[in-house]
């Protein structure tokens, strides 16, 4: 399906939870997100129905995000249910990797195609600082387990204002030695007006955007850099998706009503 600016929209990012086991300084407040009731979030069955309707409109790439998707109860089963939807061509996940070693074999059997792992540094102390207490060894074990299972792995490295060039080069070498792909992401604030002058791989230019987002609470976002949301209508899922695609702006502006952790990037 095409939006009103003739961009082909074929990519649905699904935030399966707004919870995370880390507290990265640029993503989530130290105290985490406000607890919400189970019924405030979409069920597995509802998520699968959205995927089914999305595929019918030509959205064939699905990515599971969070928060941290691996803290979502039943995430392996959910991945398998989505993979079983006819027409899903690629099912991916973005994770912080700390729980990946525990779940990666199940995700492989469920039909997950690829994994992006967030890792901003290889320095243990800096990682602990950036994540407010995370253990880098957990991520490294997750990366190794994913490679043993045969997954294509991409590392997402957010380049912060104080990231040294040597850190980037060290990450390049780490990826080269292990057959990983490195994606450099400019640090940005979704509450600030989107720039089109980034230095690294991401964020992409608005003119090439091919995605919409489904949030864990059933809101659809046409654009990451916007406050606009469309409430999913369970009685008219296809119509909800069509309205979301139709509402995509030509260019992103700013998102002030959500944290990045609630959207999944």
Task: Give keywords.
265 residues, TIM Barrel, 16% strand
Walk me through what this model shows.
There is one protein chain. By secondary structure, this protein is α/β, with parallel strands linked by helices. The chain has one domain (11-263): Aldolase class I (TIM Barrel, Alpha-Beta Barrel). It is built from eight helices and nine strands. It has helices at residues 44-56, 75-83, 100-110, 124-130, 136-148, 165-178, 237-246, 260-263; strands at residues 11-15, 61-65, 90-95, 114-118, 153-159, 181-186, 211-214, 219-221, 230-231. The chain has a nine-stranded mixed sheet, with helices on one face. Helix 2 (75-83) runs parallel beside helix 3 and helix 3 runs parallel beside helix 5 (136-148). The relative contact order is 0.18.
The CATH architecture comes to Alpha-Beta Barrel
Q: How far do the termini sit from each other?
A: 22 Å
In the CATH hierarchy, what is the superfamily?
Aldolase class I
Helix/strand structural class: alpha/beta
Overall geometric form: globular
């Amino acid at each position: 399906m095409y939006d009103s600016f003739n961009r082909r929209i074929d990519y649905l990012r699904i935030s399966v939870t707004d919870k995370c086991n880390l507290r990265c300084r640029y993503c989530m407040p130290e105290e985490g997100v406000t607890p919400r009731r189970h019924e405030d979030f979409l069920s597995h069955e509802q998520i699968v129905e959205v995927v089914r309707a999305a595929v019918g409109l030509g959205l064939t790439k699905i990515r599971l995000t969070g928060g941290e998707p691996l803290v979502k109860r039943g995430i392996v089963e959910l991945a398998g249910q989505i993979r079983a939807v006819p027409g899903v061509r690629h099912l991916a996940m973005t994770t912080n990797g700390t729980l990946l070693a525990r779940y990666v074999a199940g995700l492989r059997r469920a039909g997950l195609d690829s994994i992006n792992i967030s890792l901003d540094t290889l320095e243990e102390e800096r990682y602990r600082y950036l994540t407010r207490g995370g253990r880098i060894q957990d991520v490294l074990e997750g990366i190794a387990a994913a490679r043993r299972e045969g997954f294509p792995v991409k590392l997402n490295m957010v380049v912060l204002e104080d990231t040294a060039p040597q850190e980037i080069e060290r990450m390049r070498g780490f990826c080269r030695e292990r057959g990983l792909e490195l994606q450099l992401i400019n640090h940005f604030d979704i509450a600030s007006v989107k720039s089109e002058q980034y230095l690294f791989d991401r964020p992409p230019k608005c003119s090439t955007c091919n995605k919409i987002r489904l949030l864990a609470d059933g809101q659809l976002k046409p654009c990451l850099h916007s406050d606009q949301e469309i409430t999913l209508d369970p009685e008219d899922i296809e119509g909800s998706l069509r309205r979301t695609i139709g509402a995509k702006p030509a260019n992103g502006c700013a998102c002030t009503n959500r944290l990045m952790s609630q959207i999944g990037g």
